[in-house]
Amino acid sequence: MIKDLTPSKFVFIIFIISLTLICLVSYYGGYIKDAITKNTCNLIGEEYENGYKKGEGRCITPVGKFD
Fold first, then answer.
1. What is the pLDDT along the chain (67 residues), one digit of tens a residue?
2. Distance separating alpha carbons of residues 24 and 22, to the nearest angstrom
3. Which residue pairs, CB below 8 angstroms and at least 24 apart, start in 56-61?
4. Per-residue buried b or exposed e for 26-38, using 16+ beta carbons within 10 Å of the residue's own CB
5. For residues 9 and 35, is the Cβ–Cβ distance under 8 A?
6. What is the DSSP letter of 4?
7. What is the distance between the alpha carbons of residues 18 and 12, in angstroms, rounded to a whole number?
């Protein structure tokens, strides 16, 4: 099967794979970013606050806690 690939077919397959990966990262990127931010907030002693959209969450200092 690999022997039958012409350069144009090979480029088309790479294009389709790349396009699929770009779409997946664009769609799920906000979820991944929020998950990382949420876990990081606990490590630095802050609280996680949801954003208006996925991927906009942030760490905030809890009320009454000032260093």
1. 567 778 888 899 999 999 999 999 888 888 888 999 999 998 888 989 988 888 888 998 877 666 5
2. 5
3. 56/30, 57/33
4. eeeeeeeebeebe
5. no
6. G
7. 10
